[in-house]
Each structure stands twice: as structure tokens, then as C-alpha cells.
Amino acid sequence: MTQPAVERPEAAAREPLISVRNLSVRFETEDGAVHAVRDVSWEVYPGEILGIVGESGSGKSVSVASTLGLLPTPPAVVSGGSVMFGGVDLLTLGDRRLREIRGKDIAMIFQDPMTAFNPVLTIGSQIAEALRVHDNTLSRSRAKAGAIELLELVRVPSPVERFDQFPHEYSGGMRQRAMIAMAIANRPKLLIADEPTTALDVTIQAQILELLDEVRKETHAATILITHDLGVIAEVADRVLVMYAGKVVEQAPILPLFQTPRHPYTLGLLGSLPRLEQRLEHLLSIPGQPPNLSMIPAGCAFAPRCSLSKGRRECVDQQPDLVSVGNAHLAACHFSAEMDQAAEAAAERVGLDLRAGTD
Predict the structure, then answer these.
(1) What is this structure's pTM?
(2) What is the CB neighbour count within 10 angstroms for residue 99?
(3) Is the pLDDT of residue 352 over 50?
(4) Within a 10 A sphere around the Cβ of 52, how many other Cβ atoms?
């Protein structure tokens, strides 16, 4: 396993840059309400990288997009919670005020840069527009110069020539670099990267992750990294939020999460990581399917897929609370105290040391 990033404990002593509390989001459909995010709370501190991880449909992207008013309404409905940023609850702001914050104080790197860029406008003109939208005193020539500097900063080759090229003339990796350039154009306080490496090959993924870390150091922006890939999380994150079925099931600094997972779902994600240093007959897998979020179970949503539950009544009847299980480590599991034994049993089944490479 890749060596996880070093934890930054000093972040805990500061005030959070953004604080989400008890956020709930549903989608109204013909078949009823789909409860995509359920009573979710998290925060991000200045300068840190928060990783949000979970399989497709876990609510990780919806929970972040809803904070910026990026979900179509209808069908999306933010039914509860608050999002405090700069002393203001973002959920109470109108579209005009949110547009002022988006792209300036909070910027987003989208999963697919090909669809994020306007295909009939040049890359350079779109980056220059991002600069001028938030500074109406900026001339076109200065905006162009700024856009070229940004393309150079994210290491797009020949930035002067590339300024006048269209999105289809860029490779996938270069489009992602250009998307990062646009996102950091106004030096935001918070940078949100939604699956920024999904469509890229492994070599380009590593370059983009390195670039994101350099950008964070250059701009001092906090970063939210949304992904389904724990290998990516291990590379760059300081702290991790694990989501399942619209809820946070575990939260911890990177090292404790990899070394001592306290939720069976996290254990399943870790066990499914392929290892180059070991030849395995099969990977540890998570049986079953996520629940239908239009029919929320009374107990733990993970119980039907959980090897730790064994049909115990607490798991079937009661939703577990997210509680402290150690220093800055939270988990939502009735039997988190039994996780060490469960981890050893799971590792033995596939001949795997889940903690290898994390010390």
C-alpha cells in the first residue's frame, strides 16, 4: 500500500474554514423521495486536505455540491442543516450571492473537464473570463496575461499557444490541468476536487495529485478531495471521511484510518485495494449491494453486508451514532470495539496484512 500522507495535527487547533452541520438532502422522484444525504456533519480546516471516500451513490459528491447550491432544484431539496463559511450560512444565501462566492472564495474542479469547459470557446478565453467575472476592473489584456501565467503555473506546455486552443485540442491530462488553472484563478480559500483523476491513466493521475499538492502550498487553500479510490486518498489526504448510504460512517486522520479502521465498511474498502507486493488468489470483497435510499432501513444501513453484525438486533433495529473511538477518530458502528479481531480474520482469509506499508 502507498505510504499515507503525514497527519497535520496543528489543523485541529484552528477554527474550521467551512463547517457543515446536520446536512440532509433528498431528491423528489416519481417513485418517492431518495434520501441521498442524511444528517451529515464535517468541517475543513485552513491548509488541510480532507478526503471524502465512498462507492458510487454514497452521497459524497451530493453533500459537497449542495453546500454551493449546485444541485438542480427540483428535484433536489436541502431539507436540513447549515453550512457555515466566513460567518455566513451558505444555505441561506440567494443565487447572486452564491455566484460571487463560487469561483472566488470556493472553487471546484469537476470530474470531467471535457464537459466542464464550453467546447466552442478557447481554453484561454474561459480562464480569462473567470478572472474578469470576479474583478470588473481587469482589462482583457491583463486577463489574458493572467490566464497564460496560470496555464504556465499548472505546467501546460507552450501556454501562449495553448491559450487560443479549444478543449478538444487538449489531451485529457492537459484539460484537467487547465481546469485546475481556472479553479485557482482567484486564489480561493477552499478548493473542491471531485474525482479529479478518474478519467486519467495512472501516470497522469500521479502528476495531477502532485500538482494539486503544489497548488495547495502555493495558494494556502484548503482542499476537499472526493474520490472512491483509497489509494488516491493515501497519497495526499490529511483526514478522511468515509460515507455509506448517505451517512458518515467513519472519520479519522489518515494514519489511524489505514492502521486501525473502526467500521466494517472501511475495512472492506481497504481490503479491496490491489497490492503489487503480494500475489493473491482473490481480493477481499464486500458482498451484497447498497440499500435503496428511498427505503431507509430502521437499523444500520450496512448491516445486511456486514460480517461483524451477524444479525444482532442492535444492527437491525438501531442506527448507530457517529461517536468517538479514539483521538480524533469517529465511527458509526455498534461493535467497533470488535474491529481488531474482524480485521485479523479478514486479512487471514486472503493472506493479507492490511497494515503493511502504513507504518
Answers:
(1) 0.85
(2) 15
(3) no
(4) 28
